[in-house]
Every structure is written in C-alpha cells, then in structure tokens.
C-alpha cells in the first residue's frame, strides 16, 4: 500500500473520558464503527471504577481503564496517572463525555488542541451546571449544545460546532434537556470527525476550518449536519 493510501485510511486514536453512564460515549462508539470514520476509539477511561459506561464500552470491545481519583493524594497525582494511561494506549485526541472532574492547567496544556468537550448550552451563554434551568429562567427562544476545545477556563474554549433547538412555551427542564440531548448525540461525532481528520484545528486561540469541511460561516450547525 502506498504512503498516500496509508494516510487516507489512517484513523486518529481517541480516548473517551467518562464519570457515569456515557450517553455521548455510546454515540461516539457507534459513529466510529463506520470504516470511513476518521477516528478510532482505543480507550474509555473513568475516574470512577463503578461508572456504568465502562461496562458498556467493554461490551462493545473497547479497552477500558479506571483511574480512581480517590486513590491519589491530590489532583496532580491523579492527572499524572491518567496522562500515563492515555499515552500508554497511544491516544492522540481526548473526548470528554460526562467527565466530572475539573482538570488542572497542567493537564489541559499537555493536551492543548487535542481535547474536546460538549456543553449543554449555546456557549458563551449559560456556563457551568443546570444550563437548561438557566435557559428557561432567561427566557431564551433558542438553546442547544456546543462542542469546544478545552482550555483552563471552564466552558470557555474555542468553539468547533454548535446545535440549536427551539425552547417551547410548555418546556420544563426535562423536556428541554431531552431535546438538546438528541442534538448532542448527533453533533459530537460530527465535530470529532472534523477535528480527527484535520478539517478543524486550533490555531492561535481560534478554530480554523479547512476548505470543504462542511462548516458554514465557521460553524457546523445542527440539524443541517449533512
């Protein structure tokens, strides 16, 4: 096989970090089953050994590893152990999927431009937790989710992709959350494909898209995912 063919068929090695059931993890694993998907999920790791998502990943034939944060004296020691595990598996990109640990600047910088997170709001609106309650309280007519590169500041990284949904007059937190979650499951695999293939990359604090990446005006907006 030629070098050009090797380059065309090579898939980036990706790890998914979870703390719970791994809802978005499942959508990523399903997407990565396609032979033309540009990322291969080589590891699912969790800071909680009892995370249900670990069993789901193992059942799908994916390597799993638990790095229990409670077994370490401090956050720095935990993150060094996690970093060693990721590098041992040859991981090139990280995807956070319900990973409930605030990462230190050391870890974030070690994976700068190679770590993605999904947040359940249209950032920069409604950072932090309880985003659907925040959206309802603010009376916005559009809500959604954002895939962004991780930076030391929480929920502040450069945006790769966003998906918007309407906020309906009868919505409560559960109804709005369910509508956003549908789009999360569509958006995250599409955004990872952009990054893993090199069609979207971090450059000087902003996301640069390759020509023909499918990004409209610098963003990939659901439901027009193609």
TrEMBL record:
Coiled coil regions, renumbered to chain: none
Catalytic site: 119
KW NAD (keyword) present: no
Binding residues for (6R)-10-formyltetrahydrofolate: 75, 117
Boundaries of every Formyl transferase N-terminal domain copy: 13-192
Domain of life: Bacteria
GO BP terms: 'de novo' IMP biosynthetic process
Keyword annotations: Purine biosynthesis, Transferase
EC number: 2.1.2.2
GO function term, MF aspect, one: phosphoribosylglycinamide formyltransferase activity
GO (cellular component) term, any one: cytosol
Annotated site residues (Raises pKa of active site His) in this chain: 155
Binding-site residues for N(1)-(5-phospho-beta-D-ribosyl)glycinamide, renumbered to this chain: 22-24
Pathway: Purine metabolism; IMP biosynthesis via de novo pathway; N(2)-formyl-N(1)-(5-phospho-D-ribosyl)glycinamide from N(1)-(5-phospho-D-ribosyl)glycinamide (10-formyl THF route): step 1/1
Catalytic activity: N(1)-(5-phospho-beta-D-ribosyl)glycinamide + (6R)-10-formyltetrahydrofolate = N(2)-formyl-N(1)-(5-phospho-beta-D-ribosyl)glycinamide + (6S)-5,6,7,8-tetrahydrofolate + H(+)
Keyword Manganese recorded: no
NCBIfam families, per the entry: PurN (TIGR00639)
Family statement: Belongs to the GART family.
The protein's role, per its UniProt record: Catalyzes the transfer of a formyl group from 10-formyltetrahydrofolate to 5-phospho-ribosyl-glycinamide (GAR), producing 5-phospho-ribosyl-N-formylglycinamide (FGAR) and tetrahydrofolate.
Protein name: Phosphoribosylglycinamide formyltransferase
Organism (species): Methylobacterium variabile
Gene: purN
